[in-house]
Write a structure and sequence with these properties.
With 384 residues, this protein is α/β, with parallel strands linked by helices. The protein has helices spanning 13-27, 68-82, 93-107, 122-125, 134-143, 152-162, 212-223, 239-248, 264-267, 285-292, 305-308, 323-334, 337-354, 357-373, and strands at residues 2-6, 31-36, 50-54, 87-91, 115-119, 146-149, 169-170, 198-203, 228-233, 255-259, 273-275, 297-300, 316-318. The protein folds into 2 domains: 2-174 and 357-373, Rossmann fold (3-Layer(aba) Sandwich), CATH 3.40.50; 189-354, Rossmann fold (3-Layer(aba) Sandwich), CATH 3.40.50. The longest helix is centred in the last third of the chain and has 18 residues, at 337-354. The structure holds ligand GMT.
Length: 384
């Protein structure tokens, strides 16, 4: 198939999933056209069957807010026409879904180009529920020819909050098990923990929903019992406050803020535990990537996290904000080698059996065929 993929090309989970999906589909012989305002990270140039089309936004002085959505819709239309795309697949509803709808309508006199919207998380839980975006988010989701959500949680939340009646197909996040794999030995950890301290890791965009300050509190708690060092991977608004908190709690020397990293698969296997203390997490891609590397996650009882982590088997789940309980779980894991080994093995097994590319990508392929083939899958028989 010839598929146009639109996503945020930055370090967010939705962009990563969209990019990895495109790469996997290209590997399986599909022609993939990324349409976005910048080259997605993790997308190396020169990969067969991968194309990139930049959206240029004219910045005329009259525009206080340059209309990206319109430029995107125009570019989607052009690319769909020039390359005879079969399908548009947009990741993160706002504003990609409405841009796809506009493109579809512009293309309509020539032919039908269906579009699928994949709901990832904050597009539903945070941004989409904002009064200024709610009506158009609901409308664009309902007008999609197919809708996927990355967890049962996001499906239910979309139905409850947006009252969307169309079918929402749950297709979970996935991980490439060749790229994300355990390290034979964690010798590379010495780079960060020369005295042989245990290594904790956190990976996110440092937005408030991630509760990154909790990571610092957890580290401070752990260090009362066990020598440990924390790798903070990523960047965002809460990085400064986290750096300040680390100094305040006297653990500044035991935290490395590494900023945005293109190859988290090289860092994750070095760690003993992943911290994901999020307020809300529609799924928790960072935890899945860690699990594939044999690194047990400590997550929170929030959103779709319990769909990924089985408490006490392949990781631990504690209540949001309960940093003492999360620190206690880290200590439990780090002070019992057998438990750590068992959980690390179970974490990898979960990634292998439930969330591998082999398990998930064919679900997208089948859904594409369904949406392109017959009646639009996401559209109720009574509408349109
Ligand atoms: O806030 C983020 O983590 C970024 C966000 C995004 O949409 O870019 O991530 C969401 O999508 C990921 C991939 O599908 C999910 O694994 C994350 O759980 C989800 N984040 C949140 O719900 C906060």
């Amino acid at each position: 198939m010839k598929v146009g993929i639109t996503c945020y090309p930055t370090y967010g989970g939705s962009g990563i999933v969209a990019t990895e999906l495109g790469l996997e589909l290209a590997n399986r012989g599909h022609d993939i056209h990324f349409i976005s305002y910048a080259h997605p990270i993790r997308l190396d140039p020169g990969i067969p069957r991968i194309h990139y089309h930049e959206v240029e936004v004219s910045n005329y002085p009259l525009f206080h807010y340059p209309p990206y959505c319109l430029a995107l819709a125009s570019r989607m239309t052009e690319v769909a026409q020039s390359y005879s795309l079969d399908l548009l697949h947009v990741h993160y509803a706002i504003p990609h879904s409405i841009a796809a709808l506009l493109a579809q309508q512009m293309l309509a006199p020539e032919r039908r180009v269906p579009f699928i919207t994949t709901l990832h998380g904050t597009d539903i839980t945070l941004v989409g529920v904002d009064r200024s975006y709610f009506p158009i988010t609901k409308f664009s989701i309902e007008q999609s020819n197919g809708i996927t959500g990355i967890s049962e949680f996001i499906r239910k939340r979309t139905e409850e909050v947006f009252r969307v009646r169309n079918e929402i197909r749950v297709i979970n996040n996935f991980v490439n098990l060749e790229t994300y794999k355990p390290a034979a030995e964690k010798t590379g950890a010495r780079r960060f923990a020369p005295a042989g301290e245990k290594l904790l890791i956190h990976v996110s965009n440092f937005r408030p929903v991630k509760r990154v300050l909790d990571c610092i509190h957890i580290l401070a708690g752990v260090r009362k019992k066990i020598p440990a060092h924390l790798l903070m991977v990523g960047d965002g608004p809460d990085r400064g406050p986290a750096e300040y908190m680390a100094r305040e709690l006297g653990v500044g020397e035991s935290v490395s803020f590494l900023g945005k990293q293109d190859h988290v698969e090289r860092l994750l296997p070095l760690a003993h535990v992943l911290l994901m203390p999020s307020e809300l997490e529609a799924f928790g891609l960072a935890a899945l990537e860690a699990m594939a590397c044999g690194v047990p996650p400590i997550g929170t009882n929030a959103g779709g996290v319990p769909e990924l982590i089985t408490h006490g088997v392949d990781g631990f789940i504690e209540e949001v904000g309960d940093v003492a309980a999360q620190a206690a779980r880290v200590i439990e894991l780090l002070s019992d080698d057998k438990l750590h080994q068992r959980m690390a093995g179970a974490a990898r097994k979960t990634a292998e059996t439930r969330f591998s590319t082999e398990a998930i990508i064919p679900q997208y392929e089948r859904y594409y065929e369904q949406v392109c083939g017959g009646r639009a899958a996401g559209t109720p028989a009574t509408s349109r």
